[in-house]
Specification:
Layout: H1 2-24, H2 34-44, E1 48-53, H3 58-74, E2 82-87, E3 93-95, E4 101-103, H4 104-110, E5 118-122, E6 133-134, H5 139-158, H6 160-165
Parallel strand pairs: 1-2
Antiparallel strand pairs: 1-5, 3-4, 5-6
Length: 189
């Protein structure tokens, strides 16, 4: 009995470590630099999905575990959207779209994010492309609605004229605080 115990224990520990490594690799990437993310988004012509979360937020955890991590694991969204997480209440800082280091909480305030989780869909300049998603209620329907907003943001970014006509997820005309109001033209969205 003792001879079987060690190989079983070793095998179990090996499998556990392997599964933990696979699971750890599916976390939502936390953005340190939206400026760098925007460079990639501009090059690849992709919208950026900003997921504003809180440290102690059960709804944020549910959103990440049930919706966003499976999106990342499946790899189906690689050519569709850049997904980045921003934690608003842990004192973190981020490089914003203009290249300035700011508190993540200040960035959330600039975008009018006061509830977590909130998801924004922005272009490489930080302008919103589709309706924001605030909170999470029915997980089964949330995935469908999220897909609609991603498709709308992608279409609006790649073909603004068609995207303005054929969208299932209406756009919110909000410019980032601190940007020049003269540069903001909702008609070009």
């Amino acid at each position: 009995m003792q001879r079987l115990y060690k190989p079983i224990l070793f095998t179990g520990a090996f499998l556990w470590a392997g599964l933990a490594g696979v699971h750890a690799g599916t976390g939502v990437p936390v953005s340190d630099s939206l400026y760098a993310d925007a460079t990639q988004a501009g090059r690849d012509k992709l919208p950026i999905m900003l997921v504003f979360t809180g440290v102690v937020c059960s709804y944020c955890d549910e959103l990440e575990e049930e919706i966003i991590q499976p999106m990342l694991r499946g790899g189906e969204y690689t050519d569709t959207v850049i997904i980045r997480k921003l934690v608003v209440d842990n004192g973190s800082r981020v490089t914003d779209f203009s290249g300035q280091r700011i508190d993540t909480a200040d960035l959330a305030h600039e975008y009018g994010v006061f509830v977590t989780p909130t998801i924004l869909f922005v272009d490489p300049d930080g302008y919103q492309l589709a309706e924001r998603m605030v909170g999470i209620n029915t997980v089964e329907m949330f995935g469908w609605y999220l897909d609609q907003c991603i498709e709308s943001a992608l279409l609006r970014l790649r073909d603004p004229v068609k995207g303005a006509r054929e969208t299932a997820c209406k756009v919110v005309h909000r410019r980032p605080a601190g940007s020049n109001p003269a540069d903001f033209n909702p008609a070009t969205l």
